[in-house]
UniProtKB/TrEMBL annotation:
GO biological process, one term: cytochrome complex assembly
Keyword Membrane: yes
Bilayer topology: Multi-pass membrane protein
Domain annotation Cytochrome C biogenesis protein transmembrane: ranges: 185-394
This protein's UniProt keywords: Cytochrome c-type biogenesis, Membrane, Transmembrane, Transmembrane helix
Name assigned to this protein: Thioredoxin fold domain-containing protein
Cellular localisation: Membrane
One of the record's GO cellular component terms: membrane
Membrane spanning stretches: 182-206, 227-249, 261-282, 303-331, 337-361, 373-390, 410-428, 440-460
GO molecular function, one term: protein-disulfide reductase activity
Length: 667
């Protein structure tokens, strides 16, 4: 789940402004042997280590290469001094299910380590080669392709490293993966704590427990202090649960929980059980001996008695809070160690608030709504929500292992039915065993029903291929949609224009494609020739197969009708893939003016073009040119603001017509 805050968007814009004209190197590599003393017959490792800048991550090599991100690839120059044992293996790489790529990816943060085992066959030992990798940042919205070489030698017993190391990198800082993720868990848990208050097991206990504190001592100040401690004890108990979970699981086990099919199917079943409990099918209760033991300790009085009273509340209310607490722990289990702790802290703060606030302001007790059938309605509503959210875990397993059970339209169909039933329940058209008679529909209940049915109406177009951007983080990717009416229309349109006909014969169009049915080119010279012939400006897109931020721009900005209209009608689009591995004919090889190396693939040639001309190596990066290859607007980077992108395109069209250019290129 990705939470987008306004201040983060501002930082992205500011940062991307500074990043223009800057060749980024977010990962600094060091290569060495694992042994300092080497002799023939030894088995040792070639160790690849990287210090990675904050907010950046490097993709590993142990996930499905068809997903999209570029796997790190090593090319060893073989010789008789050694023999490779197996392949290069990542050490403690993170894994998670990525919504955009629709599968499990593996990556490193802060630091990376990979190892290649070798057998020493003779001395001197000489191991050399090259490797390529991709680095991306969620914070800046950029992706960078990188390559490096290594050259290690051992003449006789001592290791001599002749690799030219890059600039020394600062020691990586150990911290949680994403503060946005922690805030998301905290907010989700806090809302769960507020919802738990309005359940039949908890709500009636507020006046009862607060009155106990206010009347158990002649000193009201002392009673309030005990009430404060009571609330603090609730927070401490739940936070301890989260801490215990974090310590027992650890980050490695958390990665397993978030990606493997066994825990995800288990979590799905747990959510279904919790939903059935909320619907009134059965009660989830704690063992009576545990509750009785806690109650017997309440009579000790003082702060100790307040603690055991809080513990009793936790046990007694488990039948209502258990499903919510379980949902929070399951939702945070796939994150870093801090997430379960933060989740329980958020839940317990919200849960303990009414007890401490009513103790401070006892007059508020008289204004509290009375307990009644509405409390059970809260449980049922929560049951519907658990039913919908639990489907997400089954979806993760389904996408990761390609079972084909929950394609996008199947998932949406279930959600549409669940929330439609919730709307009917709110209107009193659907009843469960513990529901009291609903004589009339209150205004708040009606407004909730309106919101629920509006959400259902919003989802219905998704059954026919609508993008449903607001739900992109919760539903399967659009690629799993069997019936996409937009795709069908595009495939059958065949407008017959010159642009349409030429696009089908464009170089590399048999394996490179543009989104949203756009036609264009994938070779700079061919695209510029077409632009000159059609007398149109050029929209040049520096992109990559494994650039997740490029896909976000295409999904959220290019899809805007105004943007799409301009790209389709007013520009010749040239997509410059910087990570494509297509080998070029020898006559098309170039020697880079930037680093002096030969560029033998389409991707390396395009990447060199970007660096040599714009002194930047991050994607996505967009340039507007006239048919002579001159810039007619300042380039743009990652920015999910369709309105600004329309202004960018309009500026290019205006300057093209006025034959106006801007100075951007570095050569």
């Amino acid at each position: 789940m990705k939470l987008k805050f306004t201040f983060l968007a501002i930082l992205v814009v500011v940062f991307s402004g500074f990043s223009f004209g800057q060749v980024l190197q977010p990962a600094k590599w060091k290569v060495e042997f694992s042994n300092k003393e080497v002799k023939v017959g030894d088995q040792l490792d070639v160790v690849f280590k990287a210090a990675i800048d904050k907010t950046w991550h490097v993709y590993s090599n142990d996930f499905d290469p068809e997903l999209g991100p570029v796997l790190i690839k090593f090319d060893f120059t073989e010789n008789s001094s050694y023999e490779r044992i197996g392949e290069v293996k990542p050490i403690n790489a993170h894994k998670h299910h990525d919504e955009i790529w629709g599968g499990e990816v593996s990556y490193f943060e802060n630091e990376a380590e990979m190892r290649q085992s070798i057998l020493v066959k003779e001395l001197p030992l000489h191991v050399k080669g090259t490797f390529e990798y991709q680095t991306c940042s969620d914070a800046t919205g950029q992706c960078v392709m990188g390559d490096d070489n290594f050259d290690l030698q051992v003449k006789g017993g001592a290791v001599a490293v002749t690799q030219k190391e890059k600039a020394e990198a600062p020691a990586p800082v150990k911290e949680s993966k994403d503060k946005k993720g922690l805030w998301a868990v905290f907010i989700f848990a806090f809302l769960g704590g507020l919802a738990a208050i309005f359940t039949p097991c908890v709500f009636p206990m507020i006046p009862m427990t607060v009155s106990f504190f206010m009347h158990s001592s002649e000193n009201k100040a002392k009673g309030r202090m005990q009430a404060f401690f009571y609330g603090f004890s609730i927070i401490a108990i739940y936070t301890f649960i989260g801490t215990l979970l974090a310590v027992v699981m650890g980050p490695g086990f958390a990665n397993f929980l978030s990606t493997h099919w066994v825990p995800n199917v288990f979590f799905f079943l747990i959510f279904m059980v919790f939903a059935a409990s909320f619907f009134g099918m059965f009660e989830i209760t704690m063992p009576s001996w545990m509750v009785n033991k806690s109650v017997s300790n309440e009579d000790k009085g003082g702060l100790l008695g307040a603690f055991f009273m809080a513990f009793t509340l936790v046990l007694v209310s488990f039948s209502c809070t258990g499903p919510i607490v379980g949902a929070i722990l399951v939702a945070s289990a796939g994150g870093e160690v801090l997430m379960p702790i933060v989740g329980m802290l958020g839940f317990s703060i919200a849960f303990a608030m009414p007890f401490t606030l009513f103790a401070i302001f006892p007059g508020w007790l008289n204004k509290m709504p009375k307990s009644g059938g509405w409390l059970n309605s809260v449980k049922v509503v929560l049951g519907f929500i658990e039913l919908a959210l639990g489907l997400k875990f089954l979806s993760i397993a389904d996408q990761t292992y390609h079972w084909g059970i929950l394609d996008r339209e199947v998932y949406l169909a279930v959600w549409i039915v669940v929330f439609a039933l919730l709307g009917l329940y709110l209107l009193g058209k659907l009843k469960f065993s513990h529901d009291s008679e609903l004589k009339f529909v209150s205004v708040p209940r009606l407004l909730m029903a309106v919101a629920t049915f509006s959400f259902v109406v919003y989802m219905i177009p998704g059954m026919f291929g609508a993008p449903l951007k607001a739900l992109s983080g919760y539903i399967p990717p659009q690629a799993t949609q069997d019936f996409d009416i937009n795709q069908i229309v595009r495939n059958n349109a065949g407008n017959g224009s010159a642009v349409h006909q030429e696009a089908h014969t464009a170089m590399y169009s048999d394996f490179l494609h543009l989104p949203h049915g756009l036609n264009g080119y994938f070779d700079y010279k061919e695209g510029m020739a077409a632009a000159k012939k059609q007398n149109k400006p050029v929209f040049m897109d520096f992109t990559g197969h494994g650039c997740v931020n490029c896909r976000e721009m295409e999904a959220n900005v290019w899809s805007d009708p105004q943007v799409l209209k301009r790209l389709r009608e007013d520009y010749v689009v040239i997509a410059m893939y910087v990570d494509d591995k297509t080998k070029l004919p020898k006559e098309e090889w170039i020697v880079s003016s930037y680093d002096g190396k030969k560029k033998k693939t389409l991707g390396k040639k395009n990447a060199d073009f970007q660096i040599s001309n714009y002194n930047i190596n991050a994607q996505p990066y967009y340039c507007l040119l006239n048919s002579d290859g001159e810039d007619i607007a300042s380039p743009r980077a990652y920015d999910l603001d369709a309105g600004k992108f329309v202004e960018f395109l309009d500026e290019g069209i205006k300057n093209f017509k006025q034959r106006k250019t801007v100075a951007v290129r570095v050569n």
